[in-house]
Specification:
- It comes from Cordylochernes scorpioides.
- InterPro entries: EF-hand-dom_pair, EF_Hand_1_Ca_BS, EF_hand_dom.
- Pfam families: EF-hand_5, EF-hand_7.
- The strands form three sheets. This protein has a three-stranded antiparallel β-sheet with strand order 2-3-4. Strands 1-7 form a two-stranded antiparallel ribbon.
- The termini are close together.
- By secondary structure, it is mainly α.
- It contains 15 helices and seven strands.
- The protein binds calcium ion (4 copies).
- One calcium ion binds next to strand 1.
- The site of one calcium ion (CA) has 7 residues, from strand 6.
Length: about 325
Amino acid sequence: MHVAAVTLLACCLLAVAEDPVKRPEDLLKDKLSQIVDEEMDTDKDGSVTVGELQAWLQAAQVSAVEENVDRQWRYYEPELHDVLSWEGYNPEKKEVLHWDKYKNLTFPDSVHVVQTMIIMLIQLIMFSLSCPLTYLCCTVLNQEPPTEESTSLRDILVKTERRWKTADSNEDGYLEKEEFKLVLHPEESDKMSDVLVLETIEDMDSDKNGEVSLDEYMAHLSKVAGPERDDPAWAQAQQSNFASYLDKNKDGSLSREEMKEWVVPPYDRYEADAWRLMSVADKDNDAKLSKQDIMDHHEYFVSPSWAREEQSEGIKHDEF
Ligand SMILES: [Ca+2]
Ligand SMILES: [Ca+2]
Ligand SMILES: [Ca+2]
Ligand SMILES: [Ca+2]
């Protein structure tokens, strides 16, 4: 789900709490109508272009990411610490968070603490659905005998530590807030793209040969797909996407390089989403959306990824 959609849904949940009489769908439409006027149609000419849509999607993502990072940064209570500048002298006091503290709070080893964490993390999920760290609401580390669940938690710990080390420019174990953001939202920086590709391969590569076969690819998509997974046309479209676009050298598997184009596409994802929304809602094909066009297709604007799924020749990979 796109973060903009999550933000909009979160606004509506708050609105429902304030106005329990109105139907949630009406509240959602009211909110969307307000967003069209105040945020999308920036030149106030009564219609929304691809450029305006793109800017709105990007701004919504940026603000949702910042909000999530702020909230988590405060939760972990960073400490003031001497940080050396890149020249290596004149240490400066900065707010930083150490890996050990993050690890102990995020991967606690007592059931009681875990229960508290689960409640907190479920709240966080609302705001960070695009982040793999939301898998963290699980159970106990280091229990014996190892269960599948504890094994996967250990996997997550290993992956999280790898993200941490990649984000930690001066390798002292401490992250500043901007670096911490990379751990929570690695998709926001090129610096993290290799780590992200590696994580994706590890998640999908069941036979551990370092590449993703068509079977492994389809098994992963079926796991993250909705009810469309039962539609033979959907499976066929995914297979043909794999064969025609992703598997560039046609050897039947996705290498790390091929995975990179899928996980970190070289195009602007906001522009791509904007064009998808345009193609869904632009009835008279003038590359502009009236407010009515948007309200008539409000479900796609509440969750722009729906438009993406509808055009299933595209990549179904937005749950990462
Ligand atoms: Ca406009
Ligand atoms: Ca550091
Ligand atoms: Ca494999
Ligand atoms: Ca290949």
